[in-house]
């Protein structure tokens, strides 16, 4: 190794060490722990029993189904709203800095604070949004299965809207205004400019947002835990809540580790599909 190579190695070694301690080691330890049955401080090797027990557990499949519906609803709502906001902000309206400040306010809140706020908004006795929506739905939304799922989808979309909007806005600002001017001179309508110019050129930003928000939807836990704790019943028990209950409430760290590994594999599959899509686009 040359002196330049050694210098580069020394410079990046702290970051590599930090990455290993914070990312790689926990994954490896979770994989190791998933092959054991834990009882307090005692551990007994059970092989793949934790995985087999999960795959035969109806609650696991129910939480997987809830995760799918939650992620799909959250993804569609977040992408549509953030793209709409990015298009508005890209027009450079008056008071745009103020609008940006308002839109990005949720990002500075922790998921627990955001979830607590949304729980209060839908409290049956004093919730403002519950009071406004009850004449329309004629029920307490947070105690209804579909209503509770809608609330947690709306809450996470509101919490993560700023980052998605920022990524879309960055993509829009890379599109030259001359392209739109030429299209307008050729008689293209606003919808044709959006569908034939904006969306094709926004594909990289769109794919990045799809990947980030899909991973976020699969691994969500804190904001749902703050709002519904997986209820009513198990209506909003996604994989993250199911993992929390098995690990911390029931003390079954082996099963919790196995579930964590399955979630890691699910996230990896989504990432590989994304990377393959990017490669096909290029």
Automatic annotation (TrEMBL):
The chain crosses the membrane at residues 7-32, 68-89, 98-121, 147-169, 206-227, 253-275. The lineage of its organism: Bacteria, Pseudomonadati, Spirochaetota, Spirochaetia, Spirochaetales. Residues 64-274 form the ABC transmembrane type-1 domain. Keywords: Cell membrane, Membrane, Transmembrane, Transmembrane helix, Transport. It comes from the Bacteria. PROSITE patterns: ABC_TM1. GO terms for cellular component: plasma membrane. It is a multi-pass membrane protein. Belongs to the binding-protein-dependent transport system permease family. This is Binding-protein-dependent transport systems inner membrane component. Its main location: membrane. It is found in: Cell membrane. InterPro entries: MetI-like, MetI-like_sf. It comes from Sediminispirochaeta smaragdinae (strain DSM 11293 / JCM 15392 / SEBR 4228). The keyword Transport applies. One of its GO terms (biological process) is transmembrane transport. Pfam families: BPD_transp_1.
């Amino acid at each position: 190794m040359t002196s330049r190579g050694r210098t580069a190695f020394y410079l990046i070694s702290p970051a590599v060490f930090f990455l290993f301690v914070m990312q790689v080691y926990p994954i490896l330890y979770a994989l190791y722990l998933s092959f054991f049955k834990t009882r307090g401080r005692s551990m007994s090797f059970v092989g793949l029993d934790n995985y087999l027990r999960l795959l035969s557990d109806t609650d696991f499949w129910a939480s997987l189904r809830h995760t799918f519906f939650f992620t799909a609803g959250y993804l569609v709502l977040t992408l549509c709203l953030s793209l709409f906001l990015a298009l508005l902000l890209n027009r450079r309206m008056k008071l745009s800095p103020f609008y940006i400040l308002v839109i990005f306010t949720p990002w500075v809140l922790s998921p627990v604070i955001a979830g607590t706020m949304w729980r209060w908004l839908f409290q049956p006795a004093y919730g403002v949004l519950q009071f406004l929506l009850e004449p329309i739905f004629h029920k307490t939304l947070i105690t209804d299965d579909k209503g509770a799922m809608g609330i947690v989808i709306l809450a996470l979309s509101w919490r993560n809207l700023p980052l998605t909007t920022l990524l879309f806005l960055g993509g829009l600002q890379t599109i030259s205004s001359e392209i739109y001017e030429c299209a307008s001179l050729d008689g293209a309508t606003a919808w044709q400019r959006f569908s034939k110019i904006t969306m094709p050129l926004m594909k990289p930003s769109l794919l990045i947002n799809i990947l980030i928000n899909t991973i976020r939807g699969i691994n969500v836990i804190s904001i749902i835990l703050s709002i519904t704790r997986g209820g009513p019943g198990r209506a909003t028990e996604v994989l993250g809540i199911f993992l929390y209950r098995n690990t911390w409430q029931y003390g079954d760290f082996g099963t919790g580790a196995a579930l964590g590994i399955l979630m890691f594999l699910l996230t990896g599959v989504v990432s590989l599909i994304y990377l393959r899509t990017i490669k096909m686009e290029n």
